[in-house]
Amino acid sequence: MNTRPDLALPPEQPLDMPRQHQHAAGIALRSGWSAFRARTWFMRLLLTIITLAVTSYGVYEMYAVLNRSITTVQWVFLILFSINFAWISFAGSQALLGFLLLMFRDIRGRRYLHDRPPAIRTAVLVPVYNEDPVRVAAAIETMAAGLADDAPGRFAFFILSDTNNASAWINEERTFRQLIINSNRVCPVYYRHRRDNSERKAGNIADWVTHWGGGYEAMLVLDADSVMGTDTMIELARRLEAEPGLGLLQTVPAIVWGHTLYARLQQFANRLYGPIFSHGLSIWHGEGSNFWGHNAIIRTEAFAASAHLPILKGKPPFGGHVISHDFIEAALLRRNGWGVKLATDLNDSFEEPPPSITDVMVRDRRWCQGNLQHSRFLFARGLAMTSRLHILSGIMAYMSAVFWLMLVATGLLLAVQADMTRPEYFTQPSLFPTWPVFDSERAINLFVASMAIVLLPKFLGWASAIINLRRCFRYGGPVLVTLSVLVEILLSALVAPIMMLAQSRMVWEIFTGGDSGWKPQRRDDGSIPLMDAWRRHKWHTVVGIVVSGLTFYLHHDLFLWTLPVTAGLLSSALLSWASGKRGPGQALKLFGILRTPEERRPNRILTDVTRRLESTRGDNSANAQPGLALMLHDAAFCEWHCAQLPQTPADKNRFDPAQVLAAAKAERSPSMDALEAWLTPAESMAFLHNPELIHIVARLAAGSARLQLATK
Prior knowledge:
By secondary structure, the protein is an alpha/beta fold. Among the domains are: about 120-395, Spore Coat Polysaccharide Biosynthesis Protein SpsA, Chain A (Alpha-Beta Complex); about 630-645 and about 655-710, no CATH class. Helix content is about 60%, strand content about 5%. The protein is built from 27 helices and ten strands. The chain has helices spanning about 35-65, 70-110, 135-150, 165-180, 200-210, 230-240, 260-285, 300-305, 325-335, 355-375, 385-420, 440-465, 470-475, 480-510, 530-555, 555-560, 565-570, 570-580, 580-590, 595-600, 605-615, 630, 635-645, 655-670, 670-680, 680-690, 690-710; strands spanning about 120-130, 155-160, 190-195, 220, 225-230, 245-250, 255, 295-300, 340-345, 350. The strands form two sheets. The protein has a seven-stranded mixed sheet, sandwiched between helices. Helix 3 (about 135-150) links the parallel strand 1 (about 120-130) and strand 2 (about 155-160). The longest helix has about 35 residues, at about 70-110. Mean pLDDT is about 90; it is low at about 430-435 and about 705-710.
């Protein structure tokens, strides 16, 4: 418990967290050999065989389509096709095995029943960065109430704020202060704000580990939009406790609370196809799985000893702090002998989707830079092969867009070349001509096979619902789930070429030195004006017009073949604008299209969070957006805010321009409203970190208020 009741944090319990090196010796898994590991190796072998067989078929057929008499451009086309076909073959093979495992578990059943709380103590970490505090508080209050009843004394929540906007900081402090005061002692809620946002989320977590990690055997990392059921949180702690060699256990978050068209599209795809992919991943991950940054439990001591990220030589985007921390933290844990597993059988783990295409593009820009930066670790000494495959998969998630774009461009070049170039029948000395032959029938068969592999995961997701009637009716029944799959395929096909061009541009920007920065995410409203959508997607539209015109000029059949690509590009601005609107999404919901199980039968934890959130939002005082003036006129809150600031003496040798300017403006401002208007964002944050300046201005504000009252 706190030694001072005005503090929002418990006494520090430090834990050493040495920074790791990019290259280090690997350690064998602590768990030793087991039947689980033997089964994992067998499934890895089976996955490799299926992937190689399908890839070999596709590459051979394409080579045969080109009739074995291949020009330089055709060789480029064949190589690009081979890379792309291998990528979709791996995904399709993985989905097939995941489907079989899911069907087996449907037959066997997947219930976990335990009646005792875990013995270990777990800190639930909730990093926030300029988020809506009311939404975060509602989720934490609901989860904490359940844990207080079911596992008293075993869990504690830490809200770790990296917020760098003054108004947002004041707002979250007012909201979280009330949450802390009302929290149950057997499941307390704490709050910490740090001024230095170094290393972003990874630095935020590392800061907690070094100050309080010594008091908790486990840390359950959530995101600001995460919600997790009490039973699932307790079971995660039990499993970590039961396996001494396990360092991290990752759940598979389900996407919920999607309201816009694009959010509902992602939500449906995640809920229907997600189990196929997650079970496919678990087939070959074994104890070398991955970390997705949230909704996972981690052994604190293992994380502290293994996963303090190295700082890479050079400047961003490839040097400096590691941006996408999660993949590398999992790799470092595995390198140090700790198992990393994926729990596909635990439900009640949730997150929210980005609301629109433009929001996904903003998020992808950061993820793309982080994944490409991981290339620095691809050949790092000591990493397990599965960790290298995770890193390669992350890179390919964005490089595949470049390869697809290059494949389309090369195919168009071949079409132009065929239209404009006179055939050479005697390229070599011979009595007989070499006829240019293109096996069109084989090409059509290969195209059908390629589309079948691309659509296989979607078909298997649909089949998993049709076969299991209980699952099927959670999506509205056979008719509605089939219609939903068709709508999802159509909309996803239109979005795919937009993302192909957008991600290709991201890769280009990163390779030319562009840095993504760190922007907060929008959670609910994704709407943008139509003209803004046009400005964001005008080049996509232009590319669509050029490609459509070129293919129509070359051959009408070629125009029809490329229509799946050009249609999405031509409608990119309109599609992006509509994607962030609630109207289209709610219209589909009204007819039961893109329905998910949580909409058919509301989940208890989600219902409780929603009810608590609606109740809180109904209170206008809780939903206020306070500024500096409002804080300074609330003496109790002002004192509480100052009590949370680090009690360290000022460094006289350190010159802080923002602090100096904030003090000068405070001295000269005629009123609080004027001061708030004068201060820049950096100066506002500096002001809020200076308790002496806050107290001086608060006294002046109080005196001014009394003077105004006396004159009245």
